[in-house]
TrEMBL record:
One GO term (biological process): pyridine nucleotide biosynthetic process
Protein family (similarity comment): Belongs to the isochorismatase family.
Organism listed in the record: Rhizobium etli (strain ATCC 51251 / DSM 11541 / JCM 21823 / NBRC 15573 / CFN 42)
This protein's name: Nicotinamidase
One term of GO molecular function: metal ion binding
PANTHER family per record: LD05707P (PTHR11080:SF2), PYRAZINAMIDASE/NICOTINAMIDASE (PTHR11080)
Gene3D superfamilies tied to this protein: Isochorismatase-like (3.40.50.850)
Segments forming domain Isochorismatase-like: 3-203
Gene: pncA
Length: 208
C-alpha cells in the first residue's frame, strides 16, 4: 500500500502568501504529476490551520520580530509572521493543486500554545494528529513525502512517519519540495538521509 503525503502546499507558503517559501508554487505542477500518475493507492495532504493569535506568531508576543527565536510554552520557538489562519485565503490549499484527488486533508497547528511542523504530531512530540493511525489502518507500507517547506514541515513529517510507523519505508521527493534557505534544505536532507529516508526525484517516484 503506497501513499503520497503532500505537506502544506498552501497559499500562505507560496509567492503572495504571508510566509512565502522561495519558488514554493513550483512544487504544484510536480505534485499534480504525482497525483495523476496512478502510482499511489492513497493521497494525503497536510494543512497548517492556526487559530488567530497563535503563539508561534511574532504578533502574539509584544516586541517580537518575525524570524527571530523566541519562546512558546517554555520552549524555544521561531517567531513567524501570522500565516495560515483558519478560514482565510492564506490557509487554503494552492488553487492549482488537484485537491479533488486528495483522500484526506490532515489539519495541524490548531493548539495556540504549541506549534506543529509535522503532519503527525505537535512539536512537543506529545499530541498526535491521528495521521499515523489513519495510515496504519489503511495498511500503508510505503510513504513518499514532499511539499513545503523542506527544512521545517516536510522534514519533521518524514522523520515522524519513520518513528511513529515502525517498518514503513519513507522517501523524500526533492524536486516536489522547496525550503526556506539553501543551508536549511541541505541540513534537512542530510538528516533525513542519516535516518534512512531515501532522497529521490519525481522521475524515480513515477517510475515506481
Amino acid at each position: 500500500m503506497k501513499a503520497l503525503l503532500l505537506v502544506d502546499i498552501q497559499n500562505g507558503f507560496c509567492p503572495g502568501g504571508n510566509l512565502p517559501v522561495p519558488d514554493g508554487d513550483k512544487v504544484v505542477p510536480v505534485a499534480n504529476r504525482l497525483i495523476d500518475s496512478g502510482k499511489y493507492d492513497l493521497i494525503v495532504a497536510s494543512q497548517d490551520w492556526h487559530p488567530p493569535g497563535h503563539g508561534s506568531f511574532a504578533s502574539a508576543h509584544p516586541g517580537a520580530v518575525p524570524f527571530e527565536m523566541g519562546e512558546l510554552s517554555g520552549k524555544p520557538q521561531m517567531m513567524w509572521p501570522d500565516h495560515c489562519v483558519q478560514g482565510t485565503l492564506d490557509a487554503e490549499l494552492h488553487p492549482a493543486l488537484q485537491s479533488e484527488e486528495i483522500d484526506l486533508i490532515q489539519q495541524k497547528g490548531e493548539n495556540p500554545k504549541i506549534d506543529s511542523y509535522s503532519a503527525f504530531r505537535d512539536n512537543d512530540r506529545d499530541a498526535s494528529t491521528g495521521l499515523s493511525d489513519f495510515l496504519e489502518d489503511q495498511g500503508v507500507t510505503d510513504l513518499d513525502v514532499c511539499g513545503l517547506a523542506t527544512d521545517y514541515c516536510v522534514k519533521f513529517s518524514a522523520l515522524d512517519a519513520l518513528e511513529m510507523m515502525p517498518g514503513i519505508r519513507v522517501r523524500f521527493i526533492e524536486d516536489a519540495s522547496r525550503g526556506i534557505t539553501p543551508e536549511g534544505v541541505a541540513a534537512a536532507i542530510d538528516e533525513m538521509r542519516a535516518h534512512g529516508i531515501a532522497i529521490i526525484d519525481s522521475a524515480k517516484a513515477l517510475a515506481g
